[in-house]
DNA sequence: CTGTTAGCGCCTTCAT
DNA sequence: ATGAAGGCGCTAACAG
């Protein structure tokens, strides 16, 4: 929205564009205090703002990081972005944002387009961290978040999914439940789901594949009704057994509760429940929900700080996993 | 993270860079089908991607819009961004994202920095749409969202706050409530809050300033306790009167419910309640909550479409207000 | 201390 | 249908 160029400033001030450029880049040792002051005045009065596109082209660096989000409607995402954004602006970085809408193809396109934009680095909350697209990128300028790839190609910030679930479910076991179930979106290849299930198995001693209740993704109405039927059968046949559920995130938790409400089953009377994730609306549930609180904003902060640090060093170390601790909140829901 | 240039492609393919450039820009009429096919193959095989920075510089256009969000942790924000993002990628636009964290100063900085980036246009969810910073921008390349300025400087996408609240509260009046209260964050100069209060007044016939319960912003513990005390008094003294509350958004709703739960007051037995905004967690509240559903994603979509259209036309029309309709959801909460 | 100049990668007339 | 060359606004040696 402006039209002045460095050339104009040079002419107006009477100095060469090189000096102006030096001024713009803070190379004050290359000029007298007088010219510095003069330039300051001219630039201030004209309201001149250097064209960042040109600057980026010349510098091969654009102080921009690309952020690829798997699903922005996931409430987990907001705090992460908040953290990233905070750190980035602190360090004078801009962020260009893309959303994959849970679609692997879109994700690939997003990554490609970020690469085309030649961002300095990327933070990726991947739909599929195992996608071949990532083989074309390097750990020097990328940080992954949340989901991790089987083969760790990049520094990755995760929460201690397995451990946290194991702890929580151990509490449930100790509370004397005869039967426990892990409720989840389809496990697929998603590391967070698998790790959480893993923690569940370790706490309960069940074998892989057992006591697993899968909730279909949003929008699949028929499949969802099957899930409801499954819950109904389970509850109808449990007899006097004490039965409990661990849901792998808040959305799944909502699904389970809805299914339970169909027959007016209530926790903790008819069943016990605990969930991964904590959101503010859980405060008003009565009884309150036992849940695993993860510091999502911190994930964003760490990812951004790590990335910016790497961007400075340019030393390529081996990809590492960074674990953000969680907090177990015990209430009366089981 | 790539090194191929248009020059490389020219050499590899045996054509000149001009032809390659023409190919990249879809000027196919300027070349034979044969060279076109050949180029396609080379580019595909090499995985070449033109450097967008250079392209932007040459073209004086960067296909980037800036998005300034007032508070990304507000759950209203995600769907809006989702909508914006969808439209943008559809049209080959990138979005650079900034978050003001509800802080006017940060917002000013964000706007300035977006201007420096010389974005093609901006979509602004403003903390303070009346800030003088906006006087330096033009309606040709900006769309506002949600909150509107007193003096309409830009096209603005809003929901029909006043009307929707009026309708809902009218239902409450008809349900025979003796006393109704509007529960809100501090009204301040925020248009959405004021419009909603306005609708409330029109439905109830109360005078300006009456029946207004203000919830302090998050983090102000003492003030919040005052609010709780206020609710307690209200409920204790209501006698046999039928009393109802309309909360101006979901977060305020949560605050009210928490306050009510301190003395174990339940809706709709002890009080009636309805709220602006609908979120998925409301589905599991029993009884269900009467609420006003707004299509937030559509707000984002409209904003982006409008902006991109303006960017094409470059005709400056008078700023206009676009209203996204809402839906009244009646349940048993009052 | 200050100015000259050659790029950065791509687009775009203008010839051929 | 294809190529040569200048330019977008700025940076970064290298001279002076």
Note down, in words, how this protein is organized.
Chains A, B: InterPro entries: HTH_LacI, LacI/GalR-like_sensor, Lambda_DNA-bd_dom_sf, Peripla_BP_I. 2 copies of one chain form a homodimer. Chain A has 334 residues and is an alpha/beta fold. Chain A has 3 domains: 6-58, lambda repressor-like DNA-binding domains (434 Repressor (Amino-terminal Domain), Orthogonal Bundle); 61-159 and 296-326, Rossmann fold (3-Layer(aba) Sandwich), CATH 3.40.50.2300; 161-294, 3-Layer(aba) Sandwich (Rossmann fold), CATH 3.40.50.2300. Helix content of chain A is 42%, strand content 17%. In chain A, the strands form 2 sheets. A 6-stranded parallel β-sheet of chain A has the order 2-1-3-4-5-11, sandwiched between helices. In chain A, α10 (250-262) links the parallel β8 and β9 (272-276). In chain A, α9 (221-237) packs across α10. The first copy, chain A, is elongated, with a radius of gyration of 26 Å. The termini of chain A are far apart. At the A-B interface, α4, α5, β2, α6 and α10 of A face α4, α5, β2, α6 and α10 of B. The structure holds a DNA duplex (16 and 16 nucleotides).
């Amino acid at each position: 929205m402006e039209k002045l160029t460095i050339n104009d400033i040079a002419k107006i001030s009477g100095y060469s564009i090189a000096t102006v450029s030096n001024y713009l880049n803070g190379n004050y040792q290359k000029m007298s205090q007088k010219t510095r002051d003069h330039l300051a005045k001219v630039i201030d009065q004209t309201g001149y703002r250097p064209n960042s596109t040109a600057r980026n082209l010349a510098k091969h660096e654009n102080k921009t990081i690309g952020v690829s989000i798997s699903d922005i409607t996931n409430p987990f995402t907001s705090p992460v972005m908040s953290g990233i954004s905070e750190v980035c602006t602190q360090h004078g970085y801009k962020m260009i944002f893309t959303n994959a809408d849970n679609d692997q193809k879109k994700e690939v396109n997003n990554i490609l387009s970020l690469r085309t934009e030649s961002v300095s680095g990327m933070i990726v909350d991947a739909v599929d961290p195992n996608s071949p697209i990532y083989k074309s990128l390097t750990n020097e300028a990328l940080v992954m978040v949340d989901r991790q790839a089987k083969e760790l190609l990049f520094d990755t910030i995760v929460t201690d999914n397995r451990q946290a679930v194991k702890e929580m479910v151990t509490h449930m076991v100790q509370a004397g439940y005869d039967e426990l179930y892990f409720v989840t979106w389809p496990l697929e290849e998603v590391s967070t789901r698998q790790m959480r299930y893993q923690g569940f198995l370790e706490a309960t001693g069940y074998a892989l594949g057992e006591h697993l209740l899968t909730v279909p993704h949003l929008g699949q109405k028929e499949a969802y009704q099957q899930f409801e039927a499954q819950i109904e059968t389970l509850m109808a046949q449990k007899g006097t057994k004490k039965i409990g559920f661990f849901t792998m995130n808040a959305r799944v938790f909502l699904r389970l509760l809805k299914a339970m409400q169909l027959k007016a089953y209530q926790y903790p009377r008819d069943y016990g429940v605990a969930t991964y994730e904590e959101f503010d609306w859980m405060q008003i549930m009565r009884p309150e929900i036992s849940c695993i609180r993860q510091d999502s904003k911190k994930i964003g902060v760490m990812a951004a700080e790590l990335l910016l640090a790497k961007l400075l060093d340019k030393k390529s170390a081996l990809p590492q996993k960074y674990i953000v601790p969680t907090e177990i909140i015990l209430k009366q829901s089981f």
